[in-house]
Specification:
four-stranded mixed beta sheet, 253 residues, Rossmann fold, binds S-adenosylmethionine, 26% strand, seven-stranded mixed beta sheet
Amino acid sequence: MTARHASEGDDASPVGADPSAPGAGSRHWFEDVADHMGPAYLRYSFTRGTDQEVAFLIEVLGLEAGMTVLDVGCGPGRHAIGLARRGIAVVGVDISERFVAVAIEGADREGLSSMVEFHRGDARRMVGDGRFDGRDLDAAVSLCQGAFGLGGPPDVADPQNLGADQAVLEGVRAALRPGGRVAVTAFSSYFQVRWLEEQDHFDAAGAVNHELTEVADPAGMRVPAELWTTCYTPRELVMIAERAGLVTDHVGR
Ligand SMILES: C[S@@+](CC[C@H](N)C(=O)[O-])C[C@H]1O[C@@H](n2cnc3c(N)ncnc32)[C@H](O)[C@@H]1O
């Protein structure tokens, strides 16, 4: 989705286990997943397309050297570092301390530290946070479900299951200059239901897919993990963007 500014393991329980379970505390469910993977995240095959993705973002968002982009749920910084190599500054935010550390190390290794800021933070709470709010940034990305879509299991207090993702988009809007452009990826509900696999359980009311999988650490040790991904129809994406004060100009496939 691309939008523009409206105004113009341990072995007792899998990593990522239900964050609403008693004793789960206030940690985001993805933090345990990220703690286990660390830099091994960058070995997963889906990261091999990073250079093409960065080139696509530059084209579709009209990015130029000297601009600054907000990378929401930046993870280990693969897009941020790719943009910085092209002279585009990046403000990254991620809830995982481990991934933020990996991102900082990656930028240091390439001598790009002056081009990037990586912050540990909750993208659902960017409104009112001066590290992001009111920065007049040129564009924002949230890729591979970078915070958007990772709010966890449906919450009884939020029957439409829109609160977490709407808060992420509101934070994006608050960080952008008028006319700043946004690219967000989301799981498709239609695809998810059509291709449901044995390890998936799709909650139709909240449109959350609960997947049982395994994740590997840098030594290759695999542990069970649970992933919770909110899925969207194109129509819902347009509606949630509008609620957050963004105007959708394209929903891709
Ligand atoms: C699948 S990874 C995607 C990382 C990166 N955007 C990429 O394309 O490789 C999802 C990222 O979103 C982060 N995340 C999830 N919820 C978040 C939140 N509420 N605030 C900030 N980061 C969040 C996770 O820590 C993780 O790094």
